[in-house]
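Backbones bend. Our protein:
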Amino acid sequence: MSHTSTHLAPAARETQPRNSRGRVIFASLIGTTIEFYDFYIYATASVLVFPKLFFPHATELNAVLSSFAVFGVAFLARPVGAFLFGHYGDRLGRKVTLVASLLIMGVSTFLIGCLPTATNDVLSVVAPTLLVILRFLQGVALGGEWSGAALLATENAPEGKRAIYGTFPQLGAPIGFILANLLFIVMSTQLSAAQFMAWGWRVPFLLSAVMVIVGLYVRLRLVESASFEKVVEAGVVAKLPMSDVFVRHGRAVALGTVAMLATYVLFYLMTSFTLTYGTAPKTEAAAAAAAKSAGKPFNAADFVPGLGFARTEFLWLLIIGVVFFGIFTVLSGPWAERLGRRKLVIGVSVAIAAFGLVWQPLLSMGRPGVIAFLIIGFALMGTTFGPMAAYLPEMFPSNVRYTGSAVAYNLSSVIGAAPASFVAVWLWHVGGNAVLVGLYLALAALITLAAVFFSKDTRDVAFEDNVA
């Protein structure tokens, strides 16, 4: 059991950041950019190439569903990463866990780029199995990365600016997404379709090694956060952080988990699902032709119309939307300081629920409607995602902050992100359009709204001197 205390010694109240603002910004931003880049190149590949390369004998629908099921494996792995890295982050410090998580993500991603594909009966089993294993390791790494990066930013923030500093790691999500998809666009436009499917898809995975080297260099130069060092000096390091979190802070874990639900569902519907829906054939004839060119059987009973955009065109539209994701992530920091975390998340949850209700009408308005849909959706994403790097850590005291925030963040990924793309594709096929998908999003937003409505705001919570 951990040592307990209400406050650290008076001498521990000194709040001078140990790392410069520039170093904090760069280290928290580059780390999450790399992590999310690695994560998103898989998300994009899971739509564009993996169904054909790893599940070639399945029908078009089952191949996509199988690819999304493997995509979801990482979300099941993320709580494992939260438990593992949270434990060592609260016992050994933030720096060592940030370096380890980046290494695991980088190696796993690089090896995905080296995998064989399902070209014969043996590889039809071996290749997907190896993909699942590496995808699981990606999830473990991301399960530890986010919380460490959030603490790096917020524990080094000046007073009254935690939410603003907390947007630095959050910006890694839109930047990583843009980098990943720009690279896929370059590869798919500069190479023939045969070249892209043969080896071009591997390049984004292999190039991640360069970014990891840069990220490791920056993180190895960090100084441990003052918050953790004060916990060590006061002798209140938790012996079993996970036990303390669930025994003493179970309510905070539950509230934090549900607070992230709408964020996760929204993002993976806006990216993985919309890429599938947006590039799916609009007519049965087009679907039959696409299946024929891919050498797959076409089953008219499985056909449900999509939007019919070319793959590259829709990736560009997604990138336009993600630019607004970045802009509103930056704006959310000052808003969260001015309004408080609770009020901002309540307001944006209401807006997300309303957005889910107009999902299909916007998508039915042609290209202008699709662009408006993407801009609105990603703007809401930035507004709800930005404050979370301050909101979740503020729910937990210093000596279990890494574990608590990581567990809440990643448990939410299991119930929010893991099933989102799979469920959305199923609802699309059941309903024949995206109406049910929008209602699914609205339900997630209402659940988040209820949790946050009955919680307290954390803006004025003491950060440096509270422990379990």
Remarks:
- The CA atoms of residues 110 and 206 lie 5 Å apart.
- Confidence is low (pLDDT under 50) at residues 1-15.
